[in-house]
Structure formats: C-alpha cells, structure tokens
Specification:
Length: about 270
Amino acid sequence: MAASLGLLKLPIVPQKPHHPQSKLPVLSNPTKLILSNESINPPKPFTETIHHLKTASLPLTTLALPFFLDTKDALAVSGEFGILEGRSFALLHPIVMGGLFFYTLWAGYLGWQWRRVRTIQNEINELKKQVKRTPVTPEGKPVEAAPSPVELKVQQLTEDRKELLKGSYRDRHFNAGSILLGFGVLEAVVGGVNTWFRTGKLFPGPHLFAGAAITVLWAAAAALVPSMQKGSETARNLHIALNALNVILFIWQIPTGIEIVFKVFEFTKWP
C-alpha cells in the first residue's frame, strides 16, 4: 500500500511524439549542390580516362571482333561464292593438272629431240675426223672403193639429222615450255584459291609442298633459257636435271591428288 502511494507521488514526464526515422540520412542542400556540380563537371582524372577509352575504342573493337564472331562466318563455306565452292570448280584443278602432267612429258620429248639434233651434229663431226682419205690413182683420179663403216655411220646420222630438222623441235619445245610455264603457274595458284573457297583455309602437307616445288622448278628451268641460247652446256644440263626432278615430283604427287579428289566428291555437291 505504501509502495503504491509512493508511485503516485512520482512526477509524470511528458511523452514526446514519436517520429519514425528514415534508414538513409537526409542530405543537406550543400551536399546536393556538390554532387550536382561533380555530375556536370567530372574530375579531371575521370575525364582523361573516358577520353582514352574513346580513343582506343576502334583498336579494342578490332581485337575483340574475332571473339564475338561465329567461326563459321570467317570461313568461305557459306555459299556466298556460289559455283566457285561447288564440285565443278573443285574438279577443274585436278583435270587441268592431269593434262599438264602429260603435256610435261610431251614437252620433254620435244626437248630431247632438239637435243638429238645438236648431239648428232657433234657426233658427225667427230666421225668425219676418223674417215681416211680416199686413195687416188697416179693420174689423180679417186679409187673406187666400198664405203667404210665410219662413212656409212656418217651418212646414216646425216639422214637422221635431216629428218629431225624437219620436225622443228627447237621451236616446238620452246612453245610447249612457255605454255607449260604459263598454265602451270596459273593453275597452281587457282588450286590453292579453290581450296580456300571450299574450306576457308589451306592444308599444309605433301600435296601443297610438292605443288609449290613443281611451280618453282618450272620457273627455274625457264630462267636458264637465255644462257642455253648462248650455248652454255652447263645451263642445258641443269635445265634437263630440273625438269627431270619436276616429273618425279609430279608422279609422286599423283596419289595425294587422287585422295583429295575423293574428298571433293565426299564433301561437295554439284555444280
């Protein structure tokens, strides 16, 4: 009872109205002014950074472009080249190169015939040195006698040379070599371009390297012609050696070419 009376005597403290506080502090006007000024006029380091990014945007875009592109878009196999990606254009290279192989053999035959024209004349000149003088009578008339074997050989070689000269092998070999060089180099390049059209890339391997070597040998053999025309026997022998190596590489390249033709039929369509 006494405790209750004591509590009644305590002074009553007036209660203040409760105002809920916001979780985020209310910024004063000066602070708002400062932020507004910074948004309008950014600090100098920040401005310089933005400027450098803008300047480097083109190189950065160029470097990053391959990572964003689909790899299929970078290959020339989407049909955009039309018939150039088809089977018809792909088979043009092996057909032409097959013809050039046999034409190489024909050009070699013409060259060998022209070489015979020159070597036969040299052989005739050497045999003539071995022919004995025809004996004469006291009156100075030549004694009739059967021709010697050496003389018969000279006559035979002379007739052979006349027949060879009728063939115009020198000019025909020169023309065949020129055609072989022109079409060979052209088709060697077209073959690589066609591979890129079909697959979007080249395939380093025996066929490609052998083809490049054959093209170089064509050019090297043709470069020896001026020296050959001046009578250089060294240039002639080197010309023959280079072309013989060319034929060997050509033959060695045929199996890999046939394998590629099978792949063309497997992965391409007409036309």
